[in-house]
Design goal:
The protein is an alpha+beta fold and 302 residues long. The protein has two domains: 1-57 and 104-170, Translation Initiation Factor IF3, CATH 3.30.110.70; 62-99 and 195-286, no CATH class. It is 27% helix and 32% strand. Helix 2 packs parallel to helix 4.
């Protein structure tokens, strides 16, 4: 078997070896067989993506217009100014939250490349779809190189013709969750994932609060408890941007089985980086609600 250029040389040997592999648990495996899905192999895709760092003022780092959900396309940027009215060499007069567009684009390119290689492997075994997809991304040796790994179980639909255009569908779901989705009349189209990266460049109030210090108002006894507004806004913006990125990939379809993960990296002096990763399965209605029949218990006597 000779695979397409995007499939690693070792993949065709693994897929044609005759051994069976699956990433499913026993309950998920049983539920898939009940739906008429037969696992044919474990498929995966890798990508090692290198990216650089852009300095202040780069168009890849920030936009010029405030972020609004489903806005006009301008990147998120929000500015804060010092309320204290004095200047010193150690006093930050202004701060800004801005979207790191270059991080988002590099992450999406790495994810899509790894996912595309998973789909190529699924085509090699004649799969109709890939279920139970998982994906990971992590830095290698604390460098600016990230490794993307996408893994799933290729399945065929018993008695069905080959997939249209040879393109398998994919989903993060498996087992009972996938069965309930199909029972409700929805068909998985593809997995969808996106990341939002927001840099918090702290101004004086944020810096003092994040380091456990007091603002001028607190020393006067007027604000014993205070919201770190710039950090809160950065977290909210990261989640909103990630949702907006995913909406643009859905078209008229809907998203099912959503997971949201937010990570935080402290840079120092009150500065932070927030990254929000949103994943889900793009689904499309193809029939009305149609309950799947209960499985028949089977007991073997020999």
């Amino acid at each position: 078997m000779t695979g397409p250029p995007d499939v690693p040389e070792a993949a065709p040997r693994r897929l044609e070896s005759g051994s069976f592999s699956s990433g499913l648990t026993v309950p998920d495996f049983a539920a898939c067989l009940q739906m008429g899905l037969r696992p044919v192999g474990l498929v995966q895709g890798f990508c090692a993506m290198q990216w650089g760092w852009y300095g202040a003022g780069s168009p890849y780092m920030r936009g010029m217009s405030p972020y609004t959900p489903q806005g006009s396309g301008g990147a998120y940027a929000q500015t804060w100014y010092c309320p204290h009215g004095f200047v010193s060499g150690e006093h930050r007069m202004w701060g800004q939250n801005y979207e790191q567009v270059w991080v988002e684009q590099a992450w999406l390119q790495g994810f899509n490349t790894a996912f595309g290689r998973l789909i190529e492997e699924a085509k090699e075994v004649g799969a109709h779809g890939v279920i139970g997809v998982t994906d990971t991304a992590h830095s290698l040796l604390e460098s600016n190189v990230a490794e993307f790994h996408v893994l799933g179980t290729a399945v065929v639909v018993e008695g069905a013709p080959p997939p249209p255009k040879g393109e398998p569908w994919s989903t993060y779901l498996a087992g009972q969750r996938l069965a309930k989705l199909v029972e409700a009349g929805f068909m998985p189209i593809s997995v969808v994932a996106s990341i939002a990266s927001v840099r918090v460049w702290a101004y004086c109030v944020t810096e003092y609060l994040m380091e456990g210090g007091a603002t001028l108002w607190q020393t006067q006894g007027t604000a014993p408890v205070q919201d770190v507004e710039q950090v809160s806004e950065g977290l909210l913006a990261a989640r909103a941007i990630a949702r907006d990125h995913v909406r643009r990939q859905l078209g008229t379809d809907t998203l099912h089985g959503v997971t949201v993960a937010t990570s935080e990296r402290e840079i120092g002096g009150g500065d932070q980086v927030f990254e929000c990763t949103l994943r889900g399965t793009r689904v499309r209605r193809f029939k009305d609600f149609d309950p799947i029949g209960a499985p028949r218990p089977t007991v073997r006597l020999s």
